[in-house]
UniProtKB/TrEMBL annotation:
<dbReference type="Pfam" id="PF08241">
    <property type="entry name" value="Methyltransf_11"/>
</dbReference>
<keyword id="KW-0489">Methyltransferase</keyword>
<dbReference type="InterPro" id="IPR013216">
    <property type="entry name" value="Methyltransf_11"/>
</dbReference>
<protein>
    <submittedName>
        <fullName>Class I SAM-dependent methyltransferase</fullName>
    </submittedName>
</protein>
<dbReference type="GO" id="GO:0032259">
    <property type="term" value="P:methylation"/>
</dbReference>
<dbReference type="InterPro" id="IPR052356">
    <property type="entry name" value="Thiol_S-MT"/>
</dbReference>
<dbReference type="InterPro" id="IPR029063">
    <property type="entry name" value="SAM-dependent_MTases_sf"/>
</dbReference>
<keyword id="KW-0808">Transferase</keyword>
<feature type="domain" description="Methyltransferase type 11">
    <location>
        <begin position="35"/>
        <end position="131"/>
    </location>
</feature>
<dbReference type="GO" id="GO:0008757">
    <property type="term" value="F:S-adenosylmethionine-dependent methyltransferase activity"/>
</dbReference>
Length: 209
């Protein structure tokens, strides 16, 4: 077992445990047909309001992670359709889902801007993006520290970028903010403690003239 194989589960489990209250409130907002990016081991599944959900599509290319996710879906009473794909190229029709979900995924995708554009494409006008991710810290000195440790952090922790400026990417995207907050989660390494927790909206189509 490599050092990265040992370290990643420890840091990952700690982060996810600390984030559970925020995750639960965010995921409960999902409605209709849901696309979950990086569904992973299914930690979101128990937080969906099944009375408000029609269908859940989970994007997850990792078979080992999905084996755990499938079990959690069963326990949550969700029939989740898994698709083996990546966020930069979603095999879904335009405007085909009501809610897109991204939690602890954008730190490790190849192209965050492309992923945000793809999610915007597949969400219906008026639909929502529910997102929780650790991002570039609001304090400049800590953001500099994040940048400094990124090469080693990525190598040890599955390609994770500790301080991506995702807030800037969202601001530059076509997503409209609805309810966005920044939370510094206590008990986490400062490198990954600063989180964006938000709900974004795809603008409704203009009325025909």
């Amino acid at each position: 077992m490599s050092f990265g194989d040992f370290l990643f589960p420890l840091v990952n489990d700690l982060a996810l445990r600390k984030a559970t209250p925020y995750r639960a409130r965010l995921i409960a907002k999902a409605r209709g047909t849901v696309l979950e990016l990086g569904a992973g081991s299914g930690l979101n599944f128990s937080h969906y309001d099944r009375a408000q959900i029609e269908r859940v599509v989970g994007i997850e290319p990792d078979d080992t992670m999905w084996a755990r996710g499938e079990e959690r879906a069963r326990k949550a009473g969700l029939d989740v359709e898994r698709i083996d794909a990546f966020g930069e190229d979603l095999p879904l029709d335009d405007a085909s889902v009501d809610t897109a979900v991204s939690t602890f995924v954008m730190c490790s995708v190849r192209d965050p801007e492309a992923v945000l554009a793809e999610l915007h494409r597949v969400v219906r006008p008026g639909g929502r993006l529910l997102i929780m991710e650790h991002v570039r810290h609001e304090k400049r000195w800590m953001a500099s520290c994040q940048q400094l440790v990124t090469p080693v952090w990525k190598r040890c922790l599955g390609g994770c970028h500790p301080g991506r400026p995702l807030q800037d990417a969202l601001e530059a995207s076509e997503w409209e903010p609805v309810d966005v907050d920044f939370v510094d989660l206590p008990g986490l390494p400062s490198i990954v403690s600063f989180h964006l927790v938000g709900e974004y909206r795809r603008a409704s189509s203009p009325e025909p003239s």
